[in-house]
DNA sequence: ATTATTGCAAAGGCTTTGCACTAAG
DNA sequence: CTTAGTGCAAAGCCTTTGCAATAAT
């Protein structure tokens, strides 16, 4: 988790301006974090990150800001991890998430073929489809190794 | 939401026995509800349903029981609806969910083609894939109608 | 100058926990 | 008979809310 560079803050500031969202330091930092990291952070991770980078924030502001970004379709909420926490992700390019059920690590797969199912869903249900999400659950390579080590000891 | 028939309770009881889960009235009713309804109920819906059918339950038991069923892969948790509540679904035949962002109504689509992406995910990430979920968000036909009526009035 | 955002602290709501009672195998 | 499940109430945790201070355009 590197310290926020000045330039990514400017990119975020521009994104806010384009979306007619009032610029505040908190919003810039939160958005730039979501844009540049692949952490898929939780509320708490975002809260800590902003403070670690020398900005003031309250949890209330983090909640407000994320809701605002979701409403503007800048980011998406990802289904709760196994601790029951929502995770957030900047969502410009369609992709899906592969989630480790052991350590909750989330990685992206940039393949939008899952979106094809939206057409089928429209026809089958009559719903006016707005978007869709695909999530894969499994065990990450690191946890596979750890589990194997444990088993070998027995 | 029809009253629970005796036979579906027996089916549920058998399912529990096959999974070596101790049979209790609460578990039978909850499982039979999930097996036969297409409600994709929330915790609260399940709680009310069980009491409405003349059985005693506490919320703690509902939470315990659902966790138990999830652990035994009898049911799945569906991502929170817009009220932030988890929804539960009996999951024997692969299918995905189409969720109304307005009224939270959930319908099934019995098409398992989304599962194909699991192979891609395995290759791309090295994760040992256990399962995957696909969710489509949109507006149900009924809400489309309601929204149209409102607009026509303006 | 005007309007929106921030942040604190308190309130709210959902979920979990501990423990005594009761039921299942 | 032994082990496990249920249910109540209390505790815990996350999220939301109200309002005064502050910052953005």
From TrEMBL, chains A, B:
GO molecular function: DNA-binding transcription factor activity; transcription cis-regulatory region binding; zinc ion binding
Residues holding Zn(2+): 100, 103, 140, 143
InterPro entries for the chain: FUR, Fur_C, WH-like_DNA-bd_sf, WH_DNA-bd_sf
Cofactor note: Binds 1 zinc ion per subunit.
GO biological process: negative regulation of DNA-templated transcription; regulation of secondary metabolite biosynthetic process
Keywords recorded for this protein, A-Z: DNA-binding, Metal-binding, Repressor, Transcription, Transcription regulation, Zinc
Cofactor: Zn(2+)
A Pfam family the protein falls into: FUR
PANTHER family xrefs: FERRIC UPTAKE REGULATION PROTEIN, ZINC UPTAKE REGULATION PROTEIN
Family the UniProt entry places it in: Belongs to the Fur family.
Protein name: Ferric uptake regulation protein
